[in-house]
Amino acid sequence: MRCARTARTCGRLVLLLLLTATVLLTPAPRLTKTATSAPAPPAPDPALPTVGRAWPVGVRPPILRGWEPPATPYGRGHRGVDLAAPAGAPVRAVAAGRVSFAGRVAGKGVVSVELTGTGDPPLRATYEPVRASAKKGDEVEAGEVVGTVEASGSHCTGTCVHWGLRRGEAYLDPLSLLPPWLLHRGPSRLLPVLGVPLPS
C-alpha cells in the first residue's frame, strides 16, 4: 500500500484500520444473569387435582377477570379469578377441607380453606371480600357455605369475589380445581325416552 502522506499520518491510518477490524471480528459478549436479576416465579403445579365440586358463588358465575400470573414474584398480574356476585350472596367452599383462616386482612373479610388430600403443603383456596360464617378449624364439605359476599372491599368495579389458590408461596389458577363438566355449561338437550307410552 502506497502512502503519499507523512509516516506519522500513515501509521495512524494503519492503527485505525487494525482497531476497526478487531472490533468487527470480536464476538459479542453473551448476556448472563447477574446477582441483581429478579428470581423466576415459581412454576405452576403441573398436576393439580380436580377436587372442586362447586363454584364459590352461583352456579356458573361470570368471570370478570381471569388468572394472569406475574412474570416475576413482585410483578404486575392477577393472582386469582374475579367472579361476579351480588352483595350478600352465599360463598361456598369449592372442595372439602379445613378453614385455616377466617377474619379481616387490610379491612376486608377473607376466608381460606386448606383442601383435603391435596399434598404437602396442601392447596389453599381463598375467598375475599367475604363476611365469614365459618371459623378457623371448621371442617367443611364441597358446596358448604363459609360466608357471604361483602358489599365493599372488592377491587372490581362492582361487587365480586376474588378466588385465589396457593400451594405454599406459589400462586396457581383456581379454575384448574374444577372438572370440565363444571367449567363448561353447554345447551340442555332432551333425550328420547324409549319404551314409555305417550300420555293420552
Describe the structure.
It comes from Streptomyces regalis. One of its GO terms (molecular function) is metalloendopeptidase activity. This is Peptidase M23. Keywords: Signal. The protein has two helices and eleven strands. With 200 residues, the chain is an alpha+beta fold. The protein has a domain of 100 residues: Glucose Permease (Domain IIA). The relative contact order is 0.18. About 9% of the residues have low confidence.
Overall residue-averaged pLDDT value: 79
- Based on CA inertia axes, which overall geometry fits? elongated
By DSSP (H or I, 4+ residues per run), the number of helices equals 2
Give, in order, the helices and strands: HEEEEEEEEEEEH
CATH homolog superfamily of the domain at 78-177: Glucose Permease (Domain IIA)
Low-confidence stretches: 28-45
- The helical percent reads 10-25%
* CATH-assigned fold name of the domain at 78-177: Glucose Permease (Domain IIA)
Which value, in Å, is the CA radius of gyration?
Answer: 30 Å
Q: Describe the largest sheet.
A: 8 strands, antiparallel
Q: Termini distance?
A: 114 Å
CATH architecture descriptor text of the domain at 78-177: Distorted Sandwich
Number of strands: 11
